[in-house]
Amino acid sequence: MTQSYEYIKSSIIDNAIGLVELNRPKVLNALNIGLMKELASALKDFDNNENIKVIILTGNAKAFAAGADISEMANEDTVSIMLKDNFSTWDSIQNIKTPIIAAVSGYALGGGLELVMTCDIIVAGENALFGQPEINLGVIPGAGGTQRLTRAIGKYRSSELILTGELINAQEMYKYGLINKVVPNELYFTTALKIAKEIAKKSRIAIRLGKEAIVKSFELSLKEGLTLERKNFYMLFSSQDQKEGMKAFMEKRKPQFVGR
Ligand code: DAK
Question: Of 54, 71, 125, 211, which is least surrounded by CB within 10 A?
Answer without folding.
Answer: 71
